[in-house]
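Lecture notes, unit on protein representations.

Consider one protein chain, 110 amino acids long.
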Amino acid sequence: QAEQPEAGLKVLEEALTLVATTEERLWEAEVYRLKGVLLRQFPRPDVGQAEACFQQALHVACRQQAKALELRAALSLTSLKPSRKSVRRSNRRPSHSADFSFSAARRLFL
């Protein structure tokens, strides 16, 4: 449910435990991606941990050759890329992983 990221994370951790015990990995990439999405919904989101989840989702989807899940994970990674305005404001460069995920998304369509 919306606005209950803690409960959602608990369910996703249970799903990852099931993946590990049953080795049923069909939706593993999506579980990691959803975990990253939920981590960003906290009042003080852990962007680093969310990025790690998106990276894991991308890795799993690539390994499974699941193009749709790979694209979803890549797009989630690109959502972490700060806008140009916020980059100028903070004098930081966009993360390398966001650039990589854009490249990964482009490869899917070539």
